[in-house]
Amino acid sequence: MTNNIAKLATAPASTVSDKYVFLSTEQAHSVLADFGFFESRYRQSKGSGFQKHVSIFERETDTDEDGRFNLMLLNSHNGTSALRLEAGYFRILCENQLGSGDVGVRVSHRGSALDRFAEAIPLVLMQMESFKETKQLLRDKTMSHDAVFELAQFALMLRGVKQDELREFFQVRNQQNMASSRRFKDRGDSAWHRFNVIQENMVKGCRVFQTNDKYQKLRPLTNAEKLLDFNNQLTAKTLELVRAA
Questions:
Q1: For residues 66 and 94, what is the distance between their CA atoms, to the nearest angstrom?
Q2: Which carries the bigger pLDDT value, residue 22 or residue 184?
Q3: How far apart are CA 42 and CA 144, in angstroms?
Q4: Are residues 156 and 39 in the same domain?
Q5: Contact assessment for residue 154 and residue 239, using Cβ atoms and an 8 Å cutoff
Q6: Is the dihedral of CA 145, 146, 148, 152 positive or negative?
Q7: pLDDT tens, 26-38?
Q8: Which helix (H) or strand (E) holds 157?
Q9: Potential cystine with 195: which of 9, 14, 116, 238 (Cβ 3.0-4.6 Å)?
Q10: Running DSSP on this structure, what letter comes out for residue 142?
């Protein structure tokens, strides 16, 4: 192990079972390189060097005016998660990672794990191409006031804020806070702008009413797996609202 950097593990943790198949993150890196991807960012949770970690992979050809389409790889070497590969997007303006709304693929650490991972990559690449169309759709559409508030309500629910326990005044205040942009360039009317504002506020944390009459700080969402799930669910909900309009 090198400086407890989980992605560099060359063997699994001693706590895994005999049936556990070691699918190293470095092996996954090599396969993705064959598709033209390079690692651009990396983060890991606290641990002894086998814990969950996320790598972001990009290609030079997958950029546009707002940022970069990418692949997000989540893995661990201690049996706490399958290897996950999902399509996403890095928005430069707010320096925030988004999810495509698709579940991607999950490869369990069993059997011919590396082969199954390699075979699954084309599916995730198709999802990335589909997300390019999704982004354009959101840029072309607007969201009604009610739809924005419904999305904010949904995001608050995902973060564990019990809106139904608050008086209506404080529910509305929370929704308004979630829909408030942090910068002038995010004050557009498109569904893309509204979605990004709510996503950033929820992920980076902000002040909300969690009880009547009392503001509390909603902490940034830092857990790698929860962050992937939150982003995908929020994107899927945004698409649902836009398509229903």
A1: 10
A2: 22
A3: 37
A4: no
A5: no
A6: positive
A7: 999 999 999 999 9
A8: helix 145-158
A9: 238
A10: B
